Amino acid sequence: MQAGKSLSPLLTDLYEMTMAAAYYRREMCSPATFSLFVREYPSHRGYLVSAGLEHVLDYLEAFQFDQKDLGYLKDTGLFPGEFLDYLETIRFTGNVHAIPEGRLFFKDEPVLEITAPIIEAQLLESFVINVINLQVSIATKASRCVHAAQGRNLIDFSLRRTQGMDAGLKVARASYLAGFGGTSNVLGGKAYGIPISGTMAHSFITSFEEEIVAFRAFAETFPDNTVLLIDTYDTIAGAKKAAEVGKEMERRGYSLKGVRLDSGDMAQLSKDVRKVLTDCGLESVKIFASGAFDEYKITDVLQKGAEIDAFGIGTKMGVSADAPYTDMAYKLVQYGNRPVLKLSTGKKTLVSKKQVFRTRTDTRIIQDSIALREEEMEGEPLLKPVMEKGERTDPQEPLATMRQRFSEEFALLDDCYKALKDPDEFPVKLGPELKKLQEKVVRKVIKKELGES
Amino acid sequence: MQAGKSLSPLLTDLYEMTMAAAYYRREMCSPATFSLFVREYPSHRGYLVSAGLEHVLDYLEAFQFDQKDLGYLKDTGLFPGEFLDYLETIRFTGNVHAIPEGRLFFKDEPVLEITAPIIEAQLLESFVINVINLQVSIATKASRCVHAAQGRNLIDFSLRRTQGMDAGLKVARASYLAGFGGTSNVLGGKAYGIPISGTMAHSFITSFEEEIVAFRAFAETFPDNTVLLIDTYDTIAGAKKAAEVGKEMERRGYSLKGVRLDSGDMAQLSKDVRKVLTDCGLESVKIFASGAFDEYKITDVLQKGAEIDAFGIGTKMGVSADAPYTDMAYKLVQYGNRPVLKLSTGKKTLVSKKQVFRTRTDTRIIQDSIALREEEMEGEPLLKPVMEKGERTDPQEPLATMRQRFSEEFALLDDCYKALKDPDEFPVKLGPELKKLQEKVVRKVIKKELGES
Lengths: 453, 453
Prior knowledge:
Chain A is built from 17 helices and 19 strands. With about 450 residues, the first copy, chain A, is α/β, with parallel strands linked by helices. Chain A has two domains: about 15-140 and about 325-450, nicotinate phosphoribosyltransferase, CATH 3.20.140.10; about 200-290, Aldolase class I (TIM Barrel), CATH 3.20.20. In chain A, a hairpin with a 2-residue loop joins strand 17 (about 385-390) and strand 18 (about 390).
């Protein structure tokens, strides 16, 4: 569940396997290049964050059908025995170019290209889209929350309502990559080395006869790390009790670290709670807020002057609620030496192996160009060779490195592209050679497929 | 990843563990009852479908910390050694009552209640919400698609854009439970015994020099199961080529099973394609449609007279795009003999162990009542004992049984509650004893917690 190592190659759509069987029968084994890209921005997005590549590489390294997989496929009665014998031997032997995790990318740009014998490259489609789509969606959403929070710390609280456990782990990772400070997800912390964080639930409060007794019990157990949840019955009454416990802690040589608000009018309550704390001389106690926060609600409460030091960000980030998927596609762009495309309404693809070039000044990124892989263009090439003949070109990259990379590049992106609503469209051009080839292939295909009809 | 069997108990929020440590220090080991329920319907929903219980029971049966888990917890430096020694011995020893999978339930109704020593019941919170929330959201969404399709077959095509691989499997299961006919997800088919289904992708077409050559190659490999994707270049031109291949297949003693449309104006194209097929004497060829379908788009194309026999339903169902989460909570309702609740703004809970009673006639369900567990009410009690002292009361139920249960009960729900927009609210009342106890506890809590402030 965590990464690709132990995942079954049956995590695929049946049609990948029936197509593979047809390729096999026709002895089609030329190298194919598939390109992974986003056709349209999700609503209100003006950029995307590359994320999830490590899990693709893990999966490719381990790609192999075991006897149980093959037994199931045999039992379906769909596949010739010869093809199943072939599947037993299949491994991933291809090359992968990708934009490293943590970098920004834009629509139409290939974030990953796989070149491999067509059967291998085809079978991977469902997995590759799934893994990258989720983490790109979440890293992008999380980066919007980070931008809205203007330097305040954010913690991923989403595990309970992510769409499954795999998503829970990937959300912890992708949100940390995009600048969150930690996660409440214990296994996420263990799996990816992310700082873990947590306070208490309402059940803790209600399990005690009185709220203040619950506060004291927690403070005794975790005197160095006490954040008290104060809205179970009434937030202001809770703040006063928390302040009382905070003073008791001071007398024992400890400090109350914070209080958490989880319901009600957060802007007003945070000011009122700050006053309660200040009146008791507890200026250093942090106010932590949670409850349906996302980039929009963060912006709203901060505009209203909320005195909140940190946010727990749950469901709406964890499912990217306003844009729960990205229109990401994995399309064949070259077979053998032949550049290919489809013309389906609203779903056109760019032909051939590509590279993306980015131009920038010292302080901002200016423009991207999508070009043919071998085309010479100004700017930094973003797609790097990350796997050759089925083996990684470099060892696994630490998540901290990707996180730092994101933080640095995000600072170079103008605010107009980061606007939470109706952002400007970042300029992405086509290289002249790609443009020429694209037009030539479109003409050829139209002539061949429609001229005859 | 598939079920609960091998999942780590670290799939939890850190606060569950810090609370557990505080309970442990205070020697709090009385039985606690937690209630899992939905506070508000997701937008445009008027009912919910119970789903995911089996995975909770699997998880509870296997619940155990291993040495790696404990090593990680020790390394965090957060927990006393004595508490970690205790965690090593912990197993789930409690009781579970639940509404069986496939039944309808409504807001405020407990779909599951767990009674166990408080530490056990607390540690499960994140997992239980996660598993049930996802499957309820998806089964409910899928049931809306089934309702809209008016008997046409639906296939789950969502794997590539579900939020992770775990979600991919759970969506295959939950959508089948709610009446889908199958899934494209091969591992989903293997894991849950769901029929698998698939056609071909655009990459198959474009990998051949000509579209019709691709059609022929597929028809030769799968002569009994050929559904041709016809929109790669132009849908009508594609339909004519498919018809040509269909006639060739007839001459060899086979039949073309279907064609698939994946883009463009589906209502109009389906009529035009039907005409192409009929003009060639291919009346029996089915028209299959995919591409951004959900209950709304199905309704739209059918109202426009689309001649579509079956639908592939992908992303929008697979992430429940218009309602990607359900406002589901797991709340302490009783500790020892004391009924408890919280008063947080907009997040009130109902006290104590409960039962839900459903009244019906032969042809429709009429009303539910939420009552105390021991309260005597008219109607069928929906919550069944499914686990006692940590062991299942019954063997695992086949998915087909749940699917049948759903189909039967869904037919008894009036259409006014199934409306895709602004459905009526199904009548759910509170039993008199529950109402009385609730009021008493609210008064007591207000007096104790707010009277003092």
